[in-house]
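ok trying again, last paste got cut off:
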Amino acid sequence: MTGNTATAEDLTQEAFLQLFRKISTFRGESAFSTWLHRMSVNVVLMQLRKKGLPVVPIDETAEGDEEGTVRKEPGAPDERLAGSIDRLELERAVDELPPGYRTIFVLHDVEGYEHNEIADIVGCSIGNSKSQLHKARLKLRELLRTSRAEKAGKR
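nice, full thing came through this time. structure:
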């Protein structure tokens, strides 16, 4: 997720510190490995949010990032930008979700809230929160599939 071994090692250590601090909050409603994975992902996402995106001057990207980097021809596909299109499509699909689905999806998968916290925030049951998240993910997959199919049809 970080693209950098040293940062990944630091965040792994941070995740284990977080585990040590929060082990008492594990309720056993899911597998321990699932809980640990979610907590680790949240540690990384919080770090990425704090860090923000690096600012790169435009003339630096045209010349190449390092010595020995082959300069690409104008109009050639840029692999570094491929993820940007996916993020934009995902953002559009999230915006198209019905408001209830979108709220639960953003609170859980983007902000990292647990279902009991979401239930308190939104004023619904934990089961409803889980159900809405499941339906939101299904709808999101459908919207992304449709978007890709439309794109393929235009080619």
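cool. Residues 126-154 form the longest helix (29 residues). The radius of gyration is 20 Å.
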